[in-house]
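Hello Y.,

Per our agreement to keep a running log of every chain we model this quarter, I'm adding this entry. I've kept the format consistent with earlier entries: sequence first, then predicted structure.
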Amino acid sequence: MNNSIFPSIWRFIGLVAVQALLLQQAGSAIGSYFNVLLYPLFILLLPIQMPTPYVVLLGFAIGLSVDFFYTTIGLHASAGAFSGFARSIILAAYKPKGGYSGKEPVAAPAYFGWQWFVQVAALFFIAHLFWYFSVNAFTFVYFTTITLKTLASWGLTMIFVVLYCILFNPKN
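Predicted structure for the entry above:
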């Protein structure tokens, strides 16, 4: 088995566990406007050269795993699949001038620097959270509430994303 797969498997298991056991409880204690969704980081940190259909399927899989613990049928799976699709668009928009060389296996600060990573992660997570809260409300009548929840959760989530990357320094 390829050695580059193991970090992704551990990241999948670890992020689902943290999301289900820790962040779900924290989100319900803080309130409905402050949700920390860290599991999409798995989607963002998948290998850059991975084809989009596989990323969408893996995004769906991690979302479905989180749905199991949250008892939300398909909400996180929908957001995960959307994020898997949006990831390729975001990475293409922030591609270096010469393109991705293949020497950088994942979109991590270790390969591209913190400024690039925070910009990509910020756009990725704002898209994920907006989709998540839009599907949760299932109507744009609550556009103001959706936007407020997205922005509040985005700010809190970005703090956790940076802390995760500082603590674990993903390179694979």
